[in-house]
């Protein structure tokens, strides 16, 4: 198996965890199977960079060194807000030469500024998706997933999602067992699906201003197995179904059905991760009614059936 060079691009104001998280994954793979990855870090002039948290990182080389990267990793951080034209120019010239182009968090802003994301479906940290879409209309921005893979380009959301993406890349390169060994060593799950939402329904939705609607939100979260149709929820809020649906969407930013769908999915996920309950029992408790209905919801939202999700994300029993 040919050794792959993984090159991390460094700059002042980089987010340290955007670098160290994926780096530890690739380094873990090299520990498991020596000779698989050659990991390098480079800044424009080869000088140390100061991260956004104050940590100083010393690169291995400057960006003027001969380019031989298989995987080019561009992290994010405050330094992406006003990028150096020299850095953007280097990415524009060398990015197309990498077999795999990866961004972590707001590193996607650098890639977009270099014209490397045009026509691609991508993601970034939820707080910066609007800016990415506004400043780069040729880029298809999906604000929901923790990472997105579009051909040779892979982009991840905020900070720790870079670890999830790196594990997925290692699994592609070296197989599930190696990736699983790294995940266990780092004490993280293998692996959150890329299309898992960046945050929960309760965080994704705004909190309604009016108390009857806030009470409905609380009720949904506490009773996912109940009848949560618009008529039942409207009655709880003492509103007509049409008025309730319109007011709920206006005040929370999503329809009642979408909110219920997210809450039920999260409830089922927690039960699969934290309890030994069977799929049939969980489907009833989460409001799906049948295992088949829950399976369809999981495959649609997470790309994995409930049994596969549990196998991936429940920690292995202690030996």
Binned, the helix content reads: 40-55%
Total beta strand runs: 11
Largest beta-sheet details = 7 strands, mixed
Order of helices and strands: EHEEEEEHEHEHEEEHHHHHHHHHH
> What would CATH call the class of the largest domain?
Alpha Beta
Structural class: alpha/beta
Q: Cα distance, first to last residue?
A: 32 Å
What shape does the CA trace take?
globular
At the fourth CATH level, what is the homologous superfamily of the largest domain? Class I glutamine amidotransferase (GATase) domain
Q: What's the mean pLDDT score?
A: 89
Strand order of the largest sheet: 5-2-1-6-7-11-10
CATH topology annotation of the largest domain: Rossmann fold
Total number of domains: 2
Tally of alpha and pi helices: 14
Strand coverage percent: 5-15%
Low-confidence stretches: 315-319
Radius of gyration, taken over Cα atoms and rounded to an integer in Å: 22 Å
CATH architecture of the largest domain: 3-Layer(aba) Sandwich
Describe the structure.
The protein is an alpha/beta fold. The protein has 2 domains: 4-186, Rossmann fold, CATH 3.40.50; 201-313, Homeodomain-like (Arc Repressor Mutant, subunit A). The chain is 46% helix and 12% strand. It contains 14 helices and 11 strands. The protein has a 7-stranded mixed sheet, sandwiched between helices. Strands 3-4 form a two-stranded antiparallel ribbon.
Compact summary:
By secondary structure, the protein is of the alpha/beta class. It has helices at 16-32, 85-94, 107-113, 129-135, 161-174, 176-186, 201-204, 211-222, 230-237, 241-252, 256-274, 279-285, 291-302, 306-313, and strands at residues 4-9, 37-43, 49-50, 56-57, 61-62, 71-74, 100-103, 121-122, 140-141, 147-150, 153-156. The protein has 2 domains: 4-186, 3-Layer(aba) Sandwich (Rossmann fold), CATH 3.40.50.880; 201-313, Homeodomain-like (Arc Repressor Mutant, subunit A).
């Amino acid at each position: 198996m040919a050794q792959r060079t993984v090159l991390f691009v460094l700059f002042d104001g980089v987010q340290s965890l955007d670098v160290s998280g994926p780096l530890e994954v690739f380094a873990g793979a090299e520990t498991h199977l020596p000779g698989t990855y050659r990991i390098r870090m480079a800044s424009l002039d080869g000088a140390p960079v100061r991260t956004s948290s104050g940590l100083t990182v010393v690169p291995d080389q400057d960006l003027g060194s001969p380019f031989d990267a298989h995987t080019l990793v561009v992290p994010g951080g405050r330094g992406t807000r006003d990028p150096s034209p020299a850095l953007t120019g280097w990415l524009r010239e060398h990015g197309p030469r990498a077999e795999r182009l990866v961004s972590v968090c707001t590193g996607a802003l650098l890639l977009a500024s270099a014209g490397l994301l045009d026509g691609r479906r991508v993601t970034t940290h939820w707080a910066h998706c609007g800016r990415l879409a506004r400043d780069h209309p040729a880029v298809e921005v999906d604000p929901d997933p923790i990472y997105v893979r579009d051909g040779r380009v892979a982009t991840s959301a905020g900070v720790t999602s870079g670890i999830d993406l790196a594990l997925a890349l290692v699994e592609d390169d070296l197989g599930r067992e190696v990736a699983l060994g790294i995940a266990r060593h780092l004490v993280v799950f293998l692996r959150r699906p890329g299309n898992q939402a960046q945050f929960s329904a309760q965080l994704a939705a705004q909190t309604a201003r009016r108390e009857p609607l806030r009470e409905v939100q609380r009720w949904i979260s506490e009773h996912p197995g109940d009848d949560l149709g618009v008529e039942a929820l409207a009655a709880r809020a003492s509103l007509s179904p049409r008025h309730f649906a319109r007011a709920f969407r206006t005040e929370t930013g999503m329809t009642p059905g979408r909110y219920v769908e997210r809450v039920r999915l999260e409830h089922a996920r927690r039960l699969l991760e934290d309890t030994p309950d069977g799929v049939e029992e969980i489907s009833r408790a989460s409001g799906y009614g049948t295992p088949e209905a829950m399976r369809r919801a999981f495959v649609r939202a997470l790309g994995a059936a409930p049994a596969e999700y549990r196998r991936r994300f429940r920690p292995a029993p202690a030996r």
